[in-house]
Amino acid sequence: MAYIANLELRQNSKELMPDLLSKRRAGILVGLFCVYSQKSQGIGDFQDLRLLIDFCHKTGNSLLQLLPMNEVGLTFCPYDALSSFALEPMYLSLEQFPQIEKLKKFFSVRNNYVNYSIKEAKIGFLREIFFQKKETACLTEFRQKNEYWLEDFALYKVLKDYHQGNPWWDWEEKYKHRDPAALKAFSQDHREEIDFQIWLQWLAFRQFSLAKEYANSKQILLKGDLPILVSRDSADVWAHPEFFKLEFVAGAPPDMYCAKGQRWGMPTYNWPAIEADNWRYLKEKLHYAENFYDLLRIDHVVGLFRIWTIPYNEPPETHGLNGFFDPADETKWEGQGRKILSVMLKNTRMCICAEDLGIIPEVCPKTLEDLRIPGNDVQRWKKDWKLKHDFLLPKDYRFLSVAMLSTHDTTNWPAWWENEAGTVDEALIMQRCNERGIDYHRLKSRLFDARRSRHGRLRWREDIDSVKKLVDILGKPKEQLKDFIEFYENSYQEKEKLWRHLGLKGAMRESCDKEILKAALKITLDSRAIFCINTLIDWLFLADIFKGDAYQYRINTPGTISRRNWSLLIPISLEELLNHKIVKEIKKMVESSGRI
Description:
Layout: H1 2-5, E1 25-30, H2 49-59, E2 63-66, H3 101-106, H4 118-130, H5 137-145, H6 150-162, H7 173-176, H8 180-189, H9 191-217, E3 221-226, H10 235-239, E4 244-245, E5 248-252, E6 262-263, E7 268-269, H11 271-276, H12 280-289, E8 295-298, H13 302-305, E9 307-311, E10 324-326, H14 333-346, E11 351-354, H15 363-370, E12 375-378, E13 401-404, H16 413-419, E14 423-425, H17 426-436, H18 440-447, E15 457-459, H19 467-474, H20 482-491, H21 494-501, H22 514-526, E16 531-535, H23 536-540, H24 574-578, H25 582-592
Helix pairs in contact: 6-9, 14-15
C-alpha cells in the first residue's frame, strides 16, 4: 500500500522498530491465567509463555498479546492492580524445584476455572526457599535500577500483611500518612520480609525477561497491556497520593450494553500533579514495561482525554449513573490527551497502541491518527451507524488499527452470534421506557421474540419491519423516540445483514458453526488494519473443544464481581494444543491473508 510506504515513524520516539507499522501482522490475545502446560503448578506461568510463543510461531502469528501481568488484589482483576510496576508472583515457574510436585497434585489445572489459592501456596513455598538464599550482584543491580517503585511496593506489601490485609487507609495513622521516622523503623524491624518481596519481583523480572528473549529469537513480538488506572488500595496510591483524586472513582457512562453504566472503583488521576513532577511516574512505568514488551496497549485511552468520574461516596448501587466527565470543559479534552500521549511516545521505544472503544469523542480518534497510534476495530461494531446501519467491508477498516472479533470484556464471537447479534439490552430498554411512562411489560411481547431472547438480550420480532411500526407500538411522538429508533436501526436483523456481509450461502443459521466463524475471522484477517489480533478463545472454537452454550466461555463480564471473572481455563494443555490439527488450519488462514 502507498499509505504504508509513506508512513513516517513517530517523531522523537526512541528508535521504534522500523517495520512494526510497515507490515501487516497477525497475533493472538490471551490471559496467562487461561492456559497451562503439563508442568504448570495450578496456573499458567512465565515458563509456559514459551509454549504460547511456539504456538504463535507454528500458526504464522507474529504477535502475542497478553492481558496485564501486574500483581492483582483479592478480585484477581488484572485491571485493578496493586501496582503499575510489580509483576504477579503467582506466574512464577517453580519447575526447577523438585519439591513442587505436591502443589501440582493439589492444584489441578484440569478444571473449568483457576483455583486462585495457588498464589498463597506458591508464595509460601518460595518463602521457605528465600531464607536459604543470599543477595547476588544481579539482585543488587535490580534494586538500584528500580529504586523509584520497588522499595515502596515491598514496604506496602509487608505493611498490608502487618495490618491483616486491610487497605492502606485503614492502617495506623503513622503508616497511612507515611511518617518518615515510622517507616524507617518499620523497615528495619521487617527487613527480611521486605527483602523477600523484592526477591519475588526479581525472580518474576528474570523469568519474564527470558521469555521475551525467547519470543524475539522466534521473531514473535510481545504486546503488553498498560491499565489506565490502578487500584485505590495499591502501592502507587499509598506512595503518591498527590497523583490521584481520591474523592472520586472512575467508571463508564450508561450505554447500549450497560444501562446503569459502570463503577470501576479506581481513583482518577491528578494530571497536573503528575506533570509538575516532569511526568516521572508515567515515564518510569513505560521504562519498566520495556523489559517485557515490544508493543504496549493503552487501556481505555479515551480516559486520557476525559474520564467518567463518580463521587467516591455515591452509593454503589447507582453504578455509573451519577457521574460526570473530567475535565468538564470539552475544549480541554484534546489538549490533555494529546499532551499525555506525546509524553508516552517520546519516552519509549515500544510501539504504542490504544484501546479506543465505547463512547468516543471525535478528538480521540483524530489525535490517535495524528500521532500514528493504532486503535481497535472490533468486527461486531465496525458499522455505518448513521446511514446504512450495515457492516463495513475489510477495506474500510482503519489502516492504523488492530482488527479483532472479540475482547476480554465481551462475549466470544460464537456467543455474540448466538445470543447478542440483532438484540438490544433489556435493562436499557426498561430504563428508557420508564423514563417516558411507557409500560414495558405490556409492550414486550409485541416488540420482541421471546424464543430468541436470552441472557438479558432482546431480539426484535421479524414483523417489526419499519420505524413506523415501532413508533406506533410505543405510542409516543417520533421526536421523543430518537434513542429507540437508533437502537432499532442498528440492531434489527443485524444477523441477517452480517450473514450477507460474510458471503455465506443459503438460509441464515442461528447457531454458530465452523463455517460461520471462519468467515468472521477472515473479515478481520483480510482487513486493511495493520494488526489483526484475535483471542485464543475465538480461534479455538474452530477446534471443537468447548462444549455447551458458548456464552459461558467468557473472560470477564464488565460491571460484575464473580469468581468466574478472570479465571476461565481453556480445556486443553499447551502441549496438546501445539499438536492439535487446528494449528495447520490457523496457519493456512493467516498465510492466505498475507499476514505472515
